[in-house]
Amino acid sequence: MISFNYETDFILEDEAAFENWISRVIASESKELGEISYIFCDDEYLHKINVEYLNHDTLTDIISFDYSEGKILQGDIFISIERVRDNAKDFSVSFEEELKRVMIHGVLHYCGYKDKSEADEKRMRAKEDEKVLMFHVEH
């Protein structure tokens, strides 16, 4: 089950399309969907979580808490809509494309992909590209 929660004035258009896409991405990695909650918020909300739970006094676009067990993916994914908007401008991509990338980034972490080293980050980016393209492909 995938749920979408809103702590800011943003609303995801066509939740069903996103749910379908995320489910297909999870299946494409030979994993199973447990419960994943997306929480869309603003910088202040996410900064507070970053400080409180991770001891990081910085702004970020995403924080994911992974409760996965084996092949069953579960967790909470917090996304700052403000950060996604700013990053989209910085990277010269549409807000929608950057949002999809960030949304799937959290799921890829649950699948075991890391992004701390340069090699891991390169692999993560390639996986993000691959999975974002899947949004437009119906199966």
From TrEMBL:
The keyword Cytoplasm applies. Zn(2+) binds at H105, H109, D115. InterPro entries: MetalPrtase_cat_dom_sf_prd, YbeY. GO terms for molecular function: metalloendopeptidase activity; RNA endonuclease activity; zinc ion binding. It is found in: Cytoplasm. Keywords: Cytoplasm, Endonuclease, Hydrolase, Metal-binding, Nuclease, Ribosome biogenesis, rRNA processing, Zinc. GO terms for cellular component: cytoplasm. The keyword Lipid metabolism does not apply. SUPFAM superfamilies: Metalloproteases ('zincins'), catalytic domain. Binds 1 zinc ion. Its cofactor is Zn(2+). It is an enzyme of class 3 (hydrolase). GO terms for biological process: rRNA processing. Its EC number is 3.1.-.-. Gene3D superfamilies: Metalloproteases ('zincins'), catalytic domain (3.40.390.30). It comes from the Bacteria. Belongs to the endoribonuclease YbeY family. Single strand-specific metallo-endoribonuclease involved in late-stage 70S ribosome quality control and in maturation of the 3' terminus of the 16S rRNA. NCBIfam families: rRNA maturation RNase YbeY (TIGR00043). This is Endoribonuclease YbeY.
